[in-house]
């Protein structure tokens, strides 16, 4: 029988700058989700990559005295390196400058044009444009005349552009996002869904999809004097991979809360226009602040993935990022709170349990059963993964660790004369094996190490602690 598929994506990240904790958060979460469905036997695919065209990248390259492609090559490689460091098991790392993406985008745009979803003639398009966001902002989105995210004034945009008739899809999009029959688009968390619906109820305007004065982009197939607006083409990356690999529609677009509108509204409208299916789920997770402040280069508080890995290790980083706060909510990063999280849950919690139990088993020469093949992810996990309750999955695991610790404390096998005959061991070892299995998507390497330690019949205490304790100043 053919396996069911599960296709999850991250945003393609802009290559104006190197990866930071925010990009890492989304990508690790997507990897965890893909690994979970793979563990359940699905043909799970994870797509990630970089977004390389447009005014923002052209400007960043110019600042570094480089050609856009040369600059994009360098930064894109940094992203790929970061994801390899973090053990991200991507099916493809896509770049929007890849040949196949350019071809698929042009075919897509031609289809939009042929079906009449794009106005046949360009018209004057005026608006306030934020290059940092690569999007138009309305007057009431500005704060004291500035883009609230980039704290810069938007530029006046006034040129002849092609238009996509987004307004024609208002009713269908509302119906899809309301999703009363479960066959539409599941926009999560609920507050993002409500946000989308209330914005949609206000009405939709047609949008500009081309640039007359920007060379760094994909030429429109029906008018090569224009390049494609970067967002329109970037969204198509999912289809560039998904369509030929026969995994379309995407099961989950995992994105930050900043770009839900593009994924839940504009992208589905483009797909409907060419007769393709919209994605099944769009999840907009929360944002990190750093010690209470917005993360920004000018504040100098940007946290790089390599800094996290230097402190917590690869698996420790994956763990602390996803356990720190509920996945759909904003949260704050500080080294102090993350150190604490690491020490209490990994060094003292899981690491200590494994070390304690393996030491006792070795000391008492206990033989354990080898039947760990039948262990499956705990019941109820699919439900938690479907709602991206990743922090909850980790909380459940921590509770299991505490329960086993407690059991050991109550039983105190170190005071018993002949503890190797006790059936209590069976329960403890099976409990640890179950924990290893449930942890696999988050901590693939640690999970395998624990499995190996307890594979039976003889147990040897590992030479090194799984998670060395961090020295923290108090
Ligand atoms: O928007 N906290 O790329 P981008 C958590 N190229 N996550 C954060 C974050 C933070 N402080 N900052 C960024 C783009 N992110 C487009 C996407 S997709 C077709 C095109 C994460 O490099 C989060 O996932 O600005 C957010 O949506 C994404 O990075 C934005 O990345």
TrEMBL record:
GO terms for biological process: methionyl-tRNA aminoacylation. This is Methionine--tRNA ligase. Keywords: Aminoacyl-tRNA synthetase, ATP-binding, Ligase, Nucleotide-binding, Protein biosynthesis. It is an enzyme of class 6 (ligase). Its EC number is 6.1.1.10. NCBIfam families: metG. Is required not only for elongation of protein synthesis but also for the initiation of all mRNA translation through initiator tRNA(fMet) aminoacylation. Pfam families: tRNA-synt_1g (PF09334). Residues 7-149, 152-357 form the Methionyl/Leucyl tRNA synthetase domain. Belongs to the class-I aminoacyl-tRNA synthetase family. One of its GO terms (molecular function) is methionine-tRNA ligase activity.
